[in-house]
Design goal:
By secondary structure, the chain is an alpha/beta fold. Helices cover about 20% and strands about 30% of the residues. The chain has two domains: about 10-65, Vcp-like ATPase, Chain A, domain 2, CATH 3.10.330.20; about 70-255, Vaccinia Virus protein VP39 (Rossmann fold). It has helices at about 85-95, 110-120, 135-145, 180-190, 200-215, and strands at about 10-15, 20-25, 30-35, 35-40, 50-55, 60-65, 100-105, 125-130, 150-155, 170-175, 190-200, 220-225, 230, 240, 250-255. The mean pLDDT is about 95.
């Protein structure tokens, strides 16, 4: 991959406007068909990122690199996914960075898996547990599609029964009953390691916090991340009418 120009196989973001964006992998003899016209992707190989182009009907577009969040657009979804506003907070609360070793359950469609793998590079690893074979297969395909497979070990096992890894930096649960896996999380975490749970209801929060207190976790916190987007236009700036409000609760704690 070039740092300056587009190579065959690169994923790129094509913008027609702030709200009209396409994520596509550049291949020879491949065409992108949009409402704004057709783009011959072969013609993009070798040009610089940041360049502009024209579709076959004269619509102008700009080419840039996609972010890891942009890449979610090419993922196949088979389960409810964690929104970026929650996933980014989970990464921060879990202390994820280059070299981190992280246990995750369940994998789902692989959205959080991808973000974790992106941040543990180049020397860290994500151990992602999922009990459903069909779901895991889709997640593996999604992660392979964006080139992050080298940083993920997929396991079709139940963390409620066992977590294989020891001395782990963080354990992250997106499960309906994480309290049933807390003893295994405790045993897997290193001293100072973080546990983070994502839960949709406050009843689940009460159960997991109670169990975390019993197990001896420190600095137990519960958060709800709210996000408000704004429409910004001269004389019309205001909050957007439609937004993502409640998606779930994040519970975190530290193993002393």
């Amino acid at each position: 991959m070039s740092d300056i120009s587009i190579d065959e196989g690169d994923w790129i973001a094509i913008y027609f406007s702030n709200n009209r964006k396409y994520i596509v992998q550049v291949r020879k003899n491949k065409f992108l068909h949009t409402n704004e016209g057709t783009i011959d992707l072969s013609n993009l190989i070798g040009i610089r990122y940041g360049s502009k182009g024209i579709t076959n009907i004269g619509e102008e577009f700009t080419i840039t690199r996609p972010s890891i969040i942009d890449m979610y657009d090419v993922f196949r979804r088979v389960t409810q996914v964690i929104y970026p506003k929650d996933a980014s907070q989970i990464v921060v609360l879990a202390g994820i960075g280059p070299g981190s070793r992280v246990v995750e359950a369940g994998t789902g469609s692989g959205f959080l898996t991808a973000l974790l793998a992106f941040y543990v590079r180049p020397s860290g690893r994500v151990y992602s547990y999922e009990i459903r074979e069909d779901v895991q297969k889709v997640a593996m395909e999604n992660i392979e599609k964006i080139g992050l497979t080298p940083y993920v070990t997929f396991k079709r096992k139940d963390v409620r029964k066992q977590i294989d890894e020891e001395n782990i930096d963080a354990v992250i649960f997106d499960l309906p009953d994480p309290w049933n896996a807390l003893i295994n999380a405790w045993n897997s975490l290193k001293n100072g390691g973080r546990l983070v749970c994502f839960l949709p209801t406050i009843n689940q929060v009460e159960k997991v916090v109670t169990e975390m207190m019993y197990r001896g976790f420190l600095k137990i916190e519960t958060k709800e991340i709210l996000e408000r987007a704004y429409k910004v236009k001269k004389g019309e700036t205001r909050p957007e009418t439609i937004g993502v409000i409640h998606t779930g609760y994040i519970v975190c704690g530290i193993k002393p």
